[in-house]
Amino acid sequence: MFANNSRVVAADKSQVVACDLEGEVALLNLHNQTYYSLDPIGAYIWRRLDNPQSVADLLQSLLQEYAVEAEPCQQDLLRLLERLHEAGLIIVLPDS
């Protein structure tokens, strides 16, 4: 679903509420009243989604911040983005 040039951003704050919890993040989708939680790395990604980010930029940021290998990191990132999108927590922006 996502390509390297896909751009994503957190859903509008009128739809999703986020709360920092000692390095992790709790999210509430106001539309379906469902809570989600993100571990510290997921929280790092979430914080970057305040502004539109390309998948490639997110991956580069993760590779610079954490001592991880590119391929598994990219797979984990794509899996997280897909779950966030399915949960209505992020928006995939149209190509510009």
Give the % helix: 25-40%
CATH topology: Outer Surface Protein A, domain 3
By DSSP (H or I, 4+ residues per run), the number of helices equals 3
| Uncertain residue ranges | none
- The overall pLDDT average reads 95
> Which assembly state applies to the chains in this document?
single chain
Fraction in beta strands: 25-35%
Largest sheet, described in full? Answer: 3 strands, antiparallel
Query: What is the CATH architecture assignment?
Result: Alpha-Beta Complex
One letter per element, helices H and strands E, the order comes to EEEEHEHHE
The strand order across the widest sheet is 5-1-6
What's the level 1 CATH class? Alpha Beta
Number of strands: 6
Number of domains in the coordinates? 1
CA-atom Rg in angstroms: 13 Å
Euclidean distance between termini CA atoms: 17 Å
User: What is the SS-derived class?
Assistant: alpha+beta
Overall shape: it is globular
Question: Would you kindly provide a written description of the structure presented here, covering whatever features stand out?
Answer:
Strands 5-1-6 form a 3-stranded antiparallel β-sheet. It has 3 helices and 6 strands. Helix 2 packs across helix 3. The chain is globular, with a radius of gyration of 13 Å. The longest helix has 17 residues, at 70-86. It is of the alpha+beta class and 96 residues long. It has a single domain (7-91), classed as Outer Surface Protein A, domain 3, CATH 3.90.930. The mean pLDDT is 95. 39% of the residues lie in helices and 28% in strands. It has helices at 40-48, 55-65, 70-86, and strands at 7-10, 16-21, 24-29, 34-38, 53-54, 90-93.
